């Protein structure tokens, strides 16, 4: 019986474990944290933050979230859902918590994993390794001068992913640097518990409302086949290319109209927060949905937003590039979370990336140059559970030799074509996970289904898809 190692017990690791366990493999899941869940692990619970995706979008295909959950479940509810998923499919017996994979070595036949088990080093061997450590897994806080002075005077500096409870924020002057979802959540949801809250951003990007004039819901506008027709795809048929050429101007007008509508709906001119990047420039990497009534609270002056950037720390806060000073007790950097797999050797890590640092994965799942390794969850999207499920089934068929891959050269050419397309369609791609497929989700899933010899079944509605 082949031994399968799965690194990470988040959304992707859990569904991969279920699929391979059901197929009769000997499965071991290594999780460095104290609990399952990945981003939603118990010790990381953002209990005051609701998920950007809905419960329908963030459910596994064979295990739906409870009907009693709100449309946008809390972090605590997502964790309970994942724990119940483990219980339902008897996965807990496969999971080794507090086990961090620190090194991997391929001997030409099997992978040897060196694992830190609470300060005890152990080694185990596996035929195949599935990496589910998350498309964004290494935080990066930018350096600014005079940090030590700020810390010596009682100041605190953390990454937005490290904010776990309102207690960390309570009665503090909180300054958030950045405009991604986590940062705006941190200053929006706990409003009223904080002494003061300030958002400092360099580039304001479009955030869509969950409702368009109160109806319909965002999930029907953002995550459908219809919404995907707004964007090109790296492997289109001749008919699709002709259709895009014909409708290019119409699509441009639709997007500009949508931007104008949201400026009016949010009153963005009144609160002086005008998006600088066009919707289509941001959407290809994952267009954010406004949560926590961020814009409304700016209008009510519960949150102060400033378009600038930090120049350096001061004893009491920060000095901005525009010369103004802000006082803060806690500074939260809502900045880059990068993709990395530090447990792979430098030789293999260099094969994973091109010279610009972008991951080179065929179908966002395998590297043609690294044997017996797959990445599940690196085709990330708001539909993460479904994307991970399909990717895991694809890997299962690959391991069972039920998928005929193109030649190494053909796969490398496909990867190169995909990366060039992304850079052409969105010069901002390097600011995000270059495996994020929000704007082409359905078409990516169809590619995987076709590889497996399966047909996708569409609904009769072009809106839902």
UniProtKB/TrEMBL annotation:
Protein name: NAD(P)-binding domain-containing protein
Source organism (scientific name): Shiella aurantiaca
A Pfam family assignment: FMO-like
Family in the record: Belongs to the FMO family.
Keyword list, A-Z: FAD, Flavoprotein, NADP, Oxidoreductase
